[in-house]
């Protein structure tokens, strides 16, 4: 049966898509994304269709598209939703995008100079859309024929991270001046097509209904044009599916059980981009390939040097290059580590062997005993990643695990040196000066941090020297310069830290804590107590804040690089160092906010009591 996946950003879009499907059943990805899977009957057969509502934004769209492609192995993937019209189009019209411009990419000088990224829809879908745009068949999928009759445009659109609500805005003027052939603007298409490009066996396209014409957006939204535009875009999308010859869209891939798809347990990236880890990844891969090498490797280094991100890159590359058949990933609890000891009331804070067996058994789909796990580990060549290993009972775990591996291998990440004979420790160093600059400039460009974009050569060199190339320090630099709007206070703080990056981390957290709102402090403390990302709806529902206060707090924490980018389901997470520091009550050195009983609030919010 041919398979399609349809992503939406908003609830109104999701409902419009869902209306075309039958036999809907929920399906939960191992990482937590909840899909609905249903059937679509067309004249050429029945389609198996997975749908999901992912929230707004290009980064989330890229991540969720990649995840959905790996999960469903679809023939076709579509992003269906609403957009604002820039030119030529009217309310209710449909745009099948030939390409999507990323309008926020460029160089900020005295005037912004665009350097657009571009995502392309699949040629086969573009040609099908051109053919369908000439016909009226798609209108038959609407319950009521609208007046006036909506038109279909097969044309470029633009995508960015901003909601544009005025034709007098700088962003609108930028679009009209530099992207003259773009007829609409939205927020997810570029990230979506970027992910599809990396999976060329899948045909991808963005389809949008025009819900506003920029001016008077609130008024037309209130008049119901989002619902109208979503219905029109969905009708055209399903007409496109109905006319496709699914067996020609790509070379069929052998079907695999869902739990056996390689890489499904590798966590999502914490950063939008990973810089400068190619040599380290290559060294680890070469050691994994070498049968004479120790069966357990360890990426070591201080906090904030990007060990987890490097391990993620290694895991994906190991699968891609067939070094291993698949990856198992266990993240040890993120307790606070102080002077190589876990700060807790008793030794039970250590991650124990029994917990590791249990987590591995879930991923291996077996019972949680040593014999069953060992049998599965020896059936195939796995890479077992144990992240944040310093907070585990490491000697006990490794002494048992090493006897179970052949042919599987283990990769640890740890802030503590592991002097064990059968463990090879590899240093995860800071980034080189070149890659440190690339990270700073990329983030400064993305977040429009003028003081960094116009920094002098000596200033950039000094930033590199004093940050030691630690990725977390570089992200904190961007956040603080964004808030200060000048570079000197950050350089002064780095000079005082004198190359001790954790001193600078504490300075950044202290400065952010003293400047952020009380609501932001509540958010930070609440998130620190969670072991995983927290949905925005939970933050707003559990804590006594208004929607506007919640949004402002989220933006404050983003500005300071305290929270990681939210994924498509709008879950927000802390960097492990930030979580550990807040959990250990580091902020009590500056003030004690006496946080409320979060557990009680969470129960009341979740269960409505």
């Amino acid at each position: 049966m041919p398979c399609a996946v349809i992503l939406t950003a908003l609830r109104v879009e999701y409902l419009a898509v869902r209306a075309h499907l039958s036999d809907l059943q929920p399906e939960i990805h191992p990482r937590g994304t909840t899909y609905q899977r249903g059937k679509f009957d067309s004249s050429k057969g029945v389609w198996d269709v997975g749908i999901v509502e992912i929230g707004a934004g290009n980064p989330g769209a890229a991540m969720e598209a990649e995840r959905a492609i790996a999960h469903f192995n679809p023939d076709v993937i579509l992003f269906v939703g609403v957009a604002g019209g820039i030119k030529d189009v009217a309310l209710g019209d449909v745009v099948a995008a030939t390409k999507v411009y990323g309008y926020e990419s460029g160089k900020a000088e005295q005037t912004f100079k665009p350097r657009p990224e571009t995502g392309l829809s699949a040629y086969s879908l573009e040609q099908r859309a051109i053919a369908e745009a000439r016909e009226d068949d798609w209108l038959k999928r609407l319950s009521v024929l609208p007046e006036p009759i909506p038109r279909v445009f097969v044309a470029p659109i633009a995508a960015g991270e901003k909601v544009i609500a005025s034709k007098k805005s700088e962003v609108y003027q930028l679009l009209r001046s530099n992207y003259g052939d773009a007829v609409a603007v939205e927020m997810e298409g570029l990230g979506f097509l970027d992910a599809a490009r990396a999976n060329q066996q899948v045909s991808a396209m963005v389809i949008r209904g025009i819900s506003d014409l920029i001016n008077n957006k609130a008024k037309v939204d209130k008049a119901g044009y989002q619902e109208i535009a979503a219905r029109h875009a969905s009708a055209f999308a399903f007409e496109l599916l109905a006319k496709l010859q699914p067996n020609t869209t790509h070379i069929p891939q052998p079907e695999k059980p869902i739990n056996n798809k390689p890489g499904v347990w590798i966590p999502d990236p914490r950063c939008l981009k990973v810089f400068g880890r190619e040599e380290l990844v290559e060294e680890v891969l070469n050691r994994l390939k070498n049968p004479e090498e120790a069966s357990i490797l360890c990426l070591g280094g201080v906090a904030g040097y990007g060990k987890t991100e490097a391990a993620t890159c290694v895991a994906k590359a190991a699968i891609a290059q067939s070094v291993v058949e698949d990856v198992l990933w266990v993240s040890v609890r993120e307790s606070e580590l102080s002077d190589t000891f876990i700060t807790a009331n008793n030794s039970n804070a250590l991650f124990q062997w029994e917990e590791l067996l249990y987590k591995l058994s879930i991923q291996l789909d077996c019972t949680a005993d040593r014999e069953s796990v060992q049998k599965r580990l020896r059936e195939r060549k796995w890479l077992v990643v144990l992240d944040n290993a310093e907070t585990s009972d490491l000697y006990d775990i490794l002494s048992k695990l090493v006897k179970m591996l052949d042919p599987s291998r283990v990769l640890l990440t740890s802030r503590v040196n592991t002097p064990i004979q059968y463990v090879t420790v590899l240093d995860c160093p800071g980034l080189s000066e070149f890659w440190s600059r690339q990270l700073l400039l990329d983030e400064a460009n993305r977040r429009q941090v003028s003081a960094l974009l116009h920094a002098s050569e000596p200033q950039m060199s000094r930033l590199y020297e004093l940050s030691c190339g630690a990725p977390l320090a570089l992200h904190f630099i961007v956040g603080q310069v964004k808030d200060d709007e000048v570079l000197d206070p950050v350089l002064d703080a780095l000079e005082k830290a004198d190359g001790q990056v954790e001193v600078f981390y504490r300075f950044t957290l202290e400065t952010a804590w003293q400047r952020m709102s009380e609501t932001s402090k509540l958010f930070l403390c609440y998130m620190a107590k969670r072991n995983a990302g927290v949905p925005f709806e939970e933050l707003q529902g559990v804590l006594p804040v208004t929607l506007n206060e919640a949004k402002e707090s989220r933006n404050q924490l983003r500005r300071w690089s305290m929270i990681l980018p939210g994924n498509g389901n709008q879950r927000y997470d802390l960097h492990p160092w930030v979580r550990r520091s807040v959990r250990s009550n580091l902020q009590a050195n500056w003030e004690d906010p006496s946080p409320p009983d979060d557990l009680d609030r969470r129960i009341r919010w979740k269960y409505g009591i």
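Residues 433-607 form one domain. The chain has a mean pLDDT of 82.
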